[in-house]
Amino acid sequence: MQYHVVLNVIGRLLTFLGMLMSIPLALAYYYQEPIFPFLVGILVTSGTGVILYLNTRSEGEWHARESFAIVAFTWLLAALFGTIPYYLSGIGLIDSLFESMSGITATGATILTDIEQYPLSLLFWRNMTQWLGGMGIIVLFIAILPKLGVGGRDLFKAELPGPGEDKIKPRIKDTAMVFWKIYIGFSVVLVILLLGAGLSLYDSVTHMFTTIACGGFSPYSESISAFQNPTVEWIIILFMFIGGVHFALYYRTIFVNSRSLVRDEEFRLYALILLAATSLLILILWRDIGGSLFDTIRYAAFQVISITTTTGYASTDFNQWSDSARMALLVLMFFGGSAGSTAGGIKMVRILMLSKYAKREIFKTIHPRAIKQIKFNGAKVTDNVLNSIMAFILIYFLIFVIGAVILALLGLDMISAISASIATLGNVGPALGILGPMEGYSAVPDIGKLVLTANMLVGRLEIFTVLVLLTPEFWRNR
User: Fold this and answer.
1) Which of the four pLDDT bands, split at 50, 70 and 90, describes residue 163?
2) Which residue, 109, 414, 442, 475, is most buried by CB atoms nearer than 10 A?
3) pLDDT-derived band at 220, boundaries 50, 70, 90
4) How many Å apart are CA 407 and CA 412, to the nearest integer?
5) Chain mean pLDDT for the chain
6) What digits encode the pLDDT tens for the residues 67-78?
7) pTM for this entry
């Protein structure tokens, strides 16, 4: 392990992260709110980064091992240093860490109650961290920081969610830049549309941050339902859907082949599941609640896309729906969006590969001597990739079960414990039971909050990036 390389890169990343706090600092000054929390945050975060950078050297061999360490520790430290503005604003230490991790991992689970009482600048920072974490802070740094391309490919692969190859340019730095240009482009369009729908500039920007990032934080306790504006909801539905698609597909559709999007197997499964789940939920809500068909369609489409893409917005208190409707949403928490998107969850490509693997095993049972190759978008899928996917899903469910059991032992009811574990591991955000979208996670004991905080980090970094650091072999000298 080249520790000096790891510390040098982390130092540069922390310096940049601290500089980003100057944006909410300027907003605090504009709104005449306390600037002390952000001023301290800038000094401590950037100061630590500068010290690490100046006291280490970047020369040295850089391999996957260093990349895993850089990515895992950067995300952990980003959450830890991001805690400073919350803590200095009067929020408890564990609650501050929970909120910071939920922000940077674009989870959207919150312990804040009566959100409107907090400074606008703090809520802006809260939402802004989701925008940074949605596409990936490492991907951003690769795109804009000099001399980070040496191990950029390994960093890119270690952070960007989902299996498969995401390179669309010869240089990984250019690929990262393309991803962020598309991301920013969608962000600008979304702000314009929300302004046109009647939202203020502040509301438009803060909700842009957490819509395209599939994050789900809102400056309002009632989330999107606070606006009571169907036009806003349909705009957000569209951009949650966009955020859940592999961003490389947008580039290929625009610059390579206009049919790349519709020909992609993962995208077709993604669209099919959303359509089928929305149709099912419409029928359930129509049976259980009745009322306007237009409102039923709107509520069903919003919550299906919000939960499946792991955004976690609420256009209504879905915790008050019938058990069958809530069960449908609970199942959707496991799915997630596409690989290479801003969504969390297991990812559609893994579900697709799992179904193809199961189909092949059934075929081999009938025809034991036959050789049947699994393909994805016309390309053969190796056994190594399939084994990695199987291992991921197995460990994913194991972590989910362990989290749910711990929460149940801490006194949470079963539906709250189960939904909280998957909602944080899948970076969905709101859970069910006593932790519904209008209640938040304040009722969870501190130990449970720490467990769920770990869930968010492990889920956002796709498990292996974090778990590999816990193996003795990782730290042994080569």
Assistant:
1) low
2) 109
3) very high
4) 6
5) 90
6) 888 888 999 999
7) 0.92
* Amino acid letter, 56: T
